[in-house]
Design brief:
The chain is α/β, with parallel strands linked by helices. It folds into two domains: 1-34; 39-218, 3-Layer(aba) Sandwich (Rossmann fold), CATH 3.40.50.10610. The protein has four helices and eight strands, in the order H-E-H-E-E-E-H-E-E-E-E-H. The chain has helices at residues 3-31, 49-59, 103-119, 187-218, and strands at 39-41, 66-72, 81-87, 90-99, 124-126, 137-149, 154-163, 170-180. Strands 1, 2, 3, 4, 5, 6, 7 and 8 form an eight-stranded mixed β-sheet that branches. The N and C termini lie far apart (114 Å).
């Protein structure tokens, strides 16, 4: 074997070894566990629940029962990723920001506690409930929009309806369009702003419940 052939074989072997080493490093880099960069957020009630319970006990002693639900949210929100409306017809799903629970559960829980505080009753029962449970008035909510936009504005648009104790007769229905500001790009602030829109909506509903109760008191059946 000539010196030239020996050198060629040596170079080839070296190149193969380097290639295999490079492939091995690349495979390890690809298959290695990736760092989770997800951040998780919650919708929270805005009312002071401790004060709410005290006010409920003093004002109604639990005598007035509100049935809350069904609450319907649009299907595009039924996902862990936080949705931002970048244009009227374009939504953007975050790659890092996620809800810590289903948006349905978070929305319902916040509405339940805010409504109990602002209506002054500890008796808010979330749909569905047993037929044997007595409901004085039922509140149904159909949400059209619940997200922030590129400027940080949180929007809650919903139609809500108050029904009588039977759940068959409509006492009041209206559509509400509520907004709250937040810092653009700050999802912690955005989650707080979305929470405040629920507090605003529960305030509107509570005010109407008080009016309807006053009317019923003035004109007893």
């Amino acid at each position: 074997m000539t010196l030239t052939r020996v050198l060629l074989k040596t170079c080839a072997a070296g190149a193969l070894a380097m290639s295999l080493a490079g492939c091995s490093y690349l495979a390890k880099a690809i298959l290695a566990p990736q760092k989770d960069i997800s951040r998780f957020y919650l919708i929270t009630p805005t009312a002071d629940t401790g004060a709410a319970a005290q006010a409920a006990a003093q004002s109604t002693s639990g005598a007035f029962t509100i049935g809350l639900g069904p609450i319907k949210l649009p299907p595009y929100l039924d996902r862990p990723e936080i949705v931002t409306r970048m244009a009227p017809n374009r939504l953007e799903l975050s790659k890092e920001d996620r809800w810590g629970e289903s948006i349905q559960n978070g929305f319902t829980r916040a509405m339940e506690r805010d409504l109990a505080a602002q209506a002054g009753t500890g008796q808010v029962i979330v749909f569905p409930w047993y037929n044997t449970v007595h409901i004085d008035m039922q509140v149904q909510i159909d949400v059209y929009r619940f997200e922030t936009d590129g400027q940080g504005t949180a929007t809650l648009s919903a139609k809500w309806t108050i029904l009588d104790s039977t759940g068959r007769n409509i006492l009041y229905t209206v559509e509400s369009n509520l907004t709250q500001p937040s810092k653009p790009g700050d999802m912690t602030d955005a989650a707080a702003a979305l929470s405040r829109t629920i507090g605003d909506l529960s305030g509107q509903i509570a005010n109407m419940l008080h009016q309807l109760r006053s009317q019923q008191g003035a004109h007893p059946a």
